Amino acid sequence: MPDEPVATDAVLSVRDLKVSFATRQGELRAVDGLSFDVGAKEVLGIVGESGSGKSVAMYSMLGLVRDSNVTISGSVRFEGREILGLSDKEMEGIRGGDVGMIFQDPMTALTPVYTVGWQIVEQIRAHSDMTKAQAMARAVELLGEVGIPNPASRVHQYPHEFSGGMRQRVVIAMALSCNPKLLIADEPTTALDVTTQAQILDLMEKLQQSYGSSIVIITHDMGVIAEMADRVVVMYAGRPCEIGPEIDVVRRPRHPYTWGLLGAVPRVDSKNQRLVTIPGTSVSPLDVPEGCAFAPRCEYKMALCDQRPELHGPRDHQDACWLSDEQRVAIRSAPVGEAS
Amino acid sequence: MLSFIIRRFISAILVLFAISVMVFLIFFATPGVDPAARIAGRSASPAVVAAVRAAFGLNRPLPIRYLLMMDHLFIKHDLTSYVNPNTPVIPQILHAAPVTLSLVVGAAVIWLIVGVLGGVIAAANRGKFIDPLIMFAGIAAVSVPAYWLGEVVNYFTQSKFHSSVFSWVPASGYVPIQQNPWQWALHLFFPWLTLAALYAGIYARVLRAELVNALNEDYVRTARAKGLSERRILMRHALRCSLISIVSLFGLDFGALIGGAALLTEVVMGLPGVGQLTYNSLQDLDLPVIMGCVMYAAFFVVLANAVVDVLYAVLDPRVRVA
After folding, report:
1. B236 contacts in A (CB within 8 Å)?
2. Which residues, 6 or more positions from A284, have their beta carbon under 8 angstroms from its beta carbon?
3. Which residues does A34 contact at the CB level (< 8 Å), separation at least 6?
4. Which of A193, A249, B8, B169 is least surrounded, with the fewest CB atoms within 10 Å of its CB?
């Protein structure tokens, strides 16, 4: 896997990314062997439960993990250039310029003491030689594009004068302000209410088309994946357990964990049914089993599961599970309450 | 913003009024205290006491007496000390106030510069050698009492090395700034350092803690994700937000010190400031002077608080709406 040639058109190529923290209880492996490519204008979804390492993986790529006990290894290539291990100084042009970020909680993501316009102007001027007035005009334009009414006056307001959804629009406007080639969205809708979530997703799709950025969207919501993603990485306990085109992963999931995730999406058409849950709780990243990380919670655990399964399968839809194709067909055709 | 400032200062005036009433009641309407007898002085004849009572209106109803007392204190300025019947209260305070102001303002400049620099340098170098070094210096400065530090400074600058290294240090005392600015600064140099040490230590430690907190905030991660330099993140984002608590701390400390809390430094350094005046009047139970000093202290504490609140609103847009 790590030696696989880098796809030439990939904007972002991650190979065997490992992130671990030295803690008093021992080594905490937050991300363990993550590899994926993001092509031009492609939307990659990374899905997994809380604590599966999806956010840490993204932050560590950009050097946003500031913990001094962290160890990051592997390779992260942005447009063919290795960016893992670059100094803060070297990363400054990439962060905010070529790679925009959208964060989970818009309520705390903006500095409370500056107007939103000031904060957008600050980013634009960090990456271009626009004058203040030009940058401010661009900020107004951006706020209009992300659907904020009266952008010319709201640009002079402070973050606390915006609602959660509007603040997330501001964060998106800021992320897009330097026409990034890649947008990393870390659970952009998690902190918002449901109607706002749909609006923000629509907005991101629309902007993705007009700006042509590639997007990595991190979420624990399979609904968001189904709506946005072209390809999906399913993560469990810091390891990828399934990777493939969105259609395939959602329609023909191969890994038992993905079955569980999809089964846990509540459905409108099945009344009076209890929510399906994955039994057990997520493993602590301090003691991930040597074998398959999901084995302790897996209904289909076998003796073989004590060894760690590698991603394998057809060229573009791979999974890390020891179940044979025949076993999967048998399990999936049995009448159990999973979705699709 | 303007209406906020006006409202804040109106409420400050109301607070001052309330304080003046309370001080008046405590000192002059407490049962068993006969102010006329105190004002007339020891072993005064009943006729003199009666005359004083009439002159000061002490036989009138309480509200009238309050107004008369304020008239004596602030308009006629003829309220005199019990202990030295010929020295009026207000000129005494007005004489002492510039000394205290000079001491505290100079010290405040020093402790703000040292404290903020120390806090920022320590926070920017977390986990490196210099951080615990600064924090240790801070805790040492906080732990040393001003009177001890003052005595030690005096010992070295006035006697032990006065003939060698510190021959340029003048004898303790105060020279008005309008008389000779250079001598003014020279006389106050060591008192400034003595007073500033404690506060510089506190501010460096508080600011470091605030900065470390701020650097873990989401908005700092956003700032980093925007591609800003570490320096800009620290100064424009983290420090800017941490300043809010430093300003409120500063307002309270500054007001209290101007109001007389610099007493220990003043006494040790031989500066005839308000703290020393209060200290002497308390020793003699000189009620009019105590009342004057309390009113003076209250004025500066309340004023400092009002200024802090306005500054707060300038620094933190979230406060302005309220």
Report:
1. 122
2. none
3. A14, A16, A17, A18, A53, A57, A74, A233, A235, A238, A239, A240
4. A193
Chain segment A33-53, per-residue pLDDT in tens = 899 999 999 999 999 888 888
Residue B15 has what pLDDT? 92
Instruction: Judge whether residue B262 has pLDDT over 50.
Output: yes
pLDDT tens digits, one per residue of B95-146 = 899 999 999 999 999 999 999 999 999 999 988 899 999 999 999 999 998 8
- Find chain A residues with C-beta within 8 A of B219's C-beta: 108-112
Distance CA B292, CA A32 (A): 72
Question: What does pTM read for this prediction?
Answer: 0.83
Does ipTM exceed 0.90? no
Cβ–Cβ contacts within 10 Å for residue A277, how many? 9
- CB contact (8 A) between residue A126 and residue B315: no
For position A300, what pLDDT does the model report? 85
Neighbours of A36 (CB within 10 A): 19
Sheet strands side by side (includes A182-186): A99-102, A182-186, A214-219, A43-47, A231-236, A239-245, A318-319
For B20-50, what is each residue's pLDDT tens digit?
Answer: 898 888 877 777 767 777 666 667 788 888 8
Tokens of A160: 């606390």
Coil/strand/helix, residue A266: coil
Round to whole Å and give the CA distance between B83 and B288. 10
Ramachandran region of residue A234, left (φ > 0), alpha (ψ -120 to 50) or beta? beta
Which residue of A64, A111, A170, A178 to mutate against B (max B Cβ within 10 Å)?
A111
Give the position of tokens 């880098």: A6
Mean pLDDT of A77-102: 91
Contacts with B228 from chain A: Cβ below 8 Å? 92, 96, 122-123, 126
- Residue A169 scores a pLDDT above 60: yes
B127 with A171: Cβ contact below 8 A: no
